[in-house]
Amino acid sequence: MTTIDRSKPIMITGATGYVAGWLVKKLLLEGFTIHAPVRQPGNKDKVAHLDRLAEGTPGTIKYFSADLLDEGSYTEAMEGCELVFHTASPFNPNVDHPEKELIEPAVKGTKNVLNSANKVDSVKRVVLTSSCAAIYTDATDCQNAPGGVLTEADWNTTASLEYQPYSLSKTLAEKTAWDISNAQDRWDLVTINPCLVMGPTLNPGGTTSESLNLLKQLGDGTLRAGVPRVNIGLVDVRDVADAHYLAGFTPEAHGRYITCAHNTSFPELAEALQPRYGADYPIPTRVLPKWLVMLVGPLVNKTLSRRFVKNNVGIAFNVDNSKIRKELGIDFRPLKTTMEDAFAVLVEEGVV
């Protein structure tokens, strides 16, 4: 069991990110001092939304200079912290050089942060943002799991540099983290493994997220003709932030936590938006047949390769979220709430 002194500062890598923003907000409201290592601490535009979050709260945020590929650069920000959240990792499935753009920063960044944890005596727990991508690549992987349901015991064995390199990067990064953690006994490691993260962003102009790209396409007419029945897991960004918080401060927290609220599909995401937005926006209502997606998908979007379509469209997807609900007591938001709140931000910002 690990008890964290709440008077000590907390370090968050990737503090400017989509998930981390909500975690920063929660910690500031509770009066914590946050150490935020960023690449350009002097760039006020990059951290302006975090400064706004701190206004009027009992908490404070301090910036430090660090980079995922700069060995030892996180040590200064980590000094005096008992709890470290490592959320920073590249998320872009459309890359030209996956080894350099995904694998290297994910794995080296994890090594960098955890090697600093080994050097800084104050650290007691590290909470790592991993992904369900470290558990599976395609919905077909569920079919090979016991009972057709994936759990924390499963690891991704089907991703490669040639196919779904992002999933490979998350798998290698998390395995690296467990190797480093298991080689010492001063601090413990807890991983949060979210599925597709959706929900309102706190930084509309600066957030890059595949889920927000999908949300935009559901509302701007890109998918007007219909959507494929891609079966996925989905979770609210605010619930993912809460999961990190609970993983950090629950003394008994241990191991991996699948953080997935809903086993759902693209058509169900569109359906959730229909009641509130269907009359004013071209939210898709048709489900595209698999043969058509197989035919035109690769021409429209290179992530919709024929292999991806074969392994995900119309294939049942199921993950078991019972561990995080039982051990951390999390209560997930309804799908409709997540979708409507996320879309409302895009409407407010004039993105759709």
Question: Would you write up a description of this structure?
Answer:
The protein is α/β, with parallel strands linked by helices and 352 residues long. The chain has one domain: 3-Layer(aba) Sandwich (Rossmann fold). Helices cover 41% and strands 15% of the residues. The strands form 3 sheets. It has a 7-stranded parallel beta sheet with strand order 3-2-1-4-5-6-10, sandwiched between helices. Strands 7-9-11 form a 3-stranded mixed beta sheet. The chain has a two-stranded parallel ribbon with strand order 8-12. Helix 1 crosses helix 8, helix 4 packs parallel to helix 6 and helix 9 crosses helix 13. The N and C termini lie far apart (47 Å). The model has no long low-confidence stretch (mean pLDDT 93).
Q: Regarding CATH, which class?
A: Alpha Beta
* pLDDT averaged over residues: 93
User: How many helical stretches?
Assistant: 13
What share of the residues does DSSP label as strand, in percent? 15-25%
Superfamily at the CATH H level? NAD(P)-binding Rossmann-like Domain
**Low-confidence segments:** none
Distance between the termini: 47 Å
State the secondary-structure class: alpha/beta
How much helicity do the residues have?
40-55%
Major β-sheet annotation: 7 strands, parallel
Question: Could you tell me the number of beta strands?
Answer: 12
Write down the Rg. Answer: 20 Å
Shape: globular
Query: In sequence order, what are the helices and strands, one letter per element?
Result: EHEHEHEHEHHEEHEEHEEHEHHHH
User: In total, how many domains does the architecture comprise?
Assistant: 1
Strand order of the largest sheet: 3-2-1-4-5-6-10
CATH topology: Rossmann fold
If classified by CATH, what would the architecture be?
Answer: 3-Layer(aba) Sandwich
